[in-house]
Amino acid sequence: MILETYLHSILAQRKAEGLYRKRHTHQGAQTPTLLIDGKTYLSFCSNDYLGLAAYPEIIHALSQSAEKYGVGSGAAHLISGHSTAHQALESALAHYTGRARALLFSTGYMANLGIISGLLGRDDLIFMDKLNHASLLDGALLARAKLLRYPHADVAALDRLLQANPARHRLVVTDGVFSMDGTLAPLPELVAVAQRHNAWLMVDDAHGLGVLGAHGRGSLEHHQLDSEAVPILMGTLGKAFGVFGAFVAGSDALIETLIQTARSYIYTTALPPVLADATRTSLQIADKDQWRRDKLQALVNQFRSGAEQLGLPLTGSALTPIQPLILGKPERATALSEALYTRGILVTAIRPPTVPEGTARLRVTLSAAHEPEQVETLLYHLSDCLKHIHV
Ligand SMILES: *Cc1c(COP(=O)(O)O)cnc(C)c1O
Q: Which option is the CATH number for 56-288: 3.40.50.720, 3.30.1330.60, 1.20.120.660, 3.40.640.10?
């Protein structure tokens, strides 16, 4: 078949299934109001939970750093790309997570590929929650290990799988906060089961870090779990911290091993040093500005109680800024998203294969940069648009 013919058939099929994906191009920084085609939209779909993506102090840190380090790192970490900026951020992240060491990756996607394929191989077993992030799944595929998936948050099912499937190296991997659902993994129970079966445990806390816990240190702080309970902690820097990049934190031996074996660490250009410096400032602000977490939690409470009163299909956790409304068919999620868009509100529809069949949704996310009036506006239009949707 001719390539162009093939491509057009794929696109036509996507459109027919209501699964065609499009991008909105906005003209400025990631803030609650976005300018798209000259029109202002109220946005509820970023992962900038603490409102740090365009915060002046962090922008200043970045431009100061550029004076010293320039723009590009110019090489991979193991060649000549590893700078004092990277080193300082790794130390700060180790301190932040209460672990011996941390290792920077360019993105969370690459971190998960590198960690999983750097630690496991062909004869090993990986156990995952069915709702884990796509990058974890891809890490398992790249490792060529055997992948066993358990139903969402079903610790008893994991227990049975571990019982029935022995191997020399076994890794249990879970999101700390599930990215499309906002639910928390049952971490204390997962720790107990993993320990009972001598399996290793890895937590991807992309959506918990900066948000959960008494000091915002994430899912592990929330559940009061240490590095013995969860030896492999992965986090991202482009969500609550508002910058870019990712890391893994753990023991000295874990980090040294991954420096030798994680191919997505070794064979790629190091993150620009300016981003490392910006992130270090962001960590300090996330740490000291408790008001950001308090305000975010107040907005979450406001949204949930408003949605409940209006009879909206609320799910998720009362503790996280991810507040999806499950709508079922992709056409229904798309119709609601488009109706909101015509009223100047941006909430993108999330459809299969990102989420399971029959659970297409609007993934509403809140940020400390939102104001209560903006949440009221969202609630009003959500409820009004839902009355007029008939698919
Ligand atoms: C966003 C996300 C990632 C990927 O991180 P990036 O830095 O955006 O590549 C990994 N895991 C989870 C759970 C995520 O939500």
A: 3.40.640.10
